[in-house]
Amino acid sequence: MEELKKRILKEAEVGEGDIIRVDMFLNHCMDVALLERIGKALAKRFKGERVDKVLTVEASGIAVACFTALALGVPAVYAKKFQTGYIDPDVYAAEVHSFSMEKSYTIRVSRRYLEPDDRVLLVDDILASGQAILGLLEIVSRAGAEAVGVGVAIEKATKDGGEVLRRMGLRVESLVKVERIEDGHIILGED
Amino acid sequence: MEELKKRILKEAEVGEGDIIRVDMFLNHCMDVALLERIGKALAKRFKGERVDKVLTVEASGIAVACFTALALGVPAVYAKKFQTGYIDPDVYAAEVHSFSMEKSYTIRVSRRYLEPDDRVLLVDDILASGQAILGLLEIVSRAGAEAVGVGVAIEKATKDGGEVLRRMGLRVESLVKVERIEDGHIILGED
């Protein structure tokens, strides 16, 4: 996705430990017109597949999930990371390890919103080590549902999440791939 | 908003302590086509006002904020409740008390995404005691920016948040008002 490549090269910042900051347009301050186009582009990649639901994890995946689901004409569900407000006690849960936070957390989806015959598209803003997606896959599996594939705006090929998921036989679509960081500069690959 | 009233009367559930569950279409499993119309309806209420940014709190406010911001043609920013992944150390922060959780938490917005001349529309899915909106107001004030008003999908008039905010001189627009709960039944008012 050329537009997203340009925005990354123009605005993204490289922080300590080669983290890539895109919070100026993707996941804190959100350019929602861009996010709408990201959603449409991800939906297009899975055109021809039956998708019943889009599933993501709060909070940074929600915008991408909403716009992808809107383009596909299906509901979006987000797994909860935190116990705030009411949460259904009857949930599918999975443990997710965060390497950046150096801790694990539980993600939960109410059993009411995943059914055994659902074909579920997993989406997120960024795919790095793939831990969050692996947690969502576990939840989809516990529900007896089927994962159609994984769609992300940005894949960090510097981490092995994409490779791990593809080796599991999953279709992984990323709109932009970050190949590597060289002296604080972001080098993008072909998607 | 007639469509939202109908959905509430048809699908919402009343739980312990008269909490209203709308997680089947609004804030866990999301009917994104409905949410898009909610965003358009909120944007329409503030037509004629200059709005530079839409501001909400993660996670349940993000979808409403995205679609309202899209309809207004401005960015959406969400305050972070949790320290996950990278967060700018240079933030505006406010303490928010959650009555339902019986604890307080800190919400944070990077200083880069609120500017002194910004006119900010605060949005959320549900307005009850108004604590989250009061926290956002504090952040807007710390940034030297101006709050245009508050837009929510559902206002629980059984709690005093809307009244408190209006008494402060704020314009509060809610698409549907829950007047009261009678024997487990939801009674809606006129918006």
Automatic annotation (TrEMBL), chains A, B:
Keywords: Cytoplasm, Glycosyltransferase, Membrane, Purine salvage, Transferase, Transmembrane, Transmembrane helix. Gene3D superfamilies: 3.40.50.2020. GO terms for biological process: purine ribonucleoside salvage; xanthine metabolic process; XMP salvage. It is an enzyme of class 2 (transferase). 5-phospho-alpha-D-ribose 1-diphosphate binds at A128, S129, G130, Q131, A132. Homodimer. Belongs to the purine/pyrimidine phosphoribosyltransferase family. Xpt subfamily. NCBIfam families: PRK09219.1 (NF006671), XPRTase (TIGR01744). This is Xanthine phosphoribosyltransferase. It comes from Candidatus Intestinimonas pullistercoris.
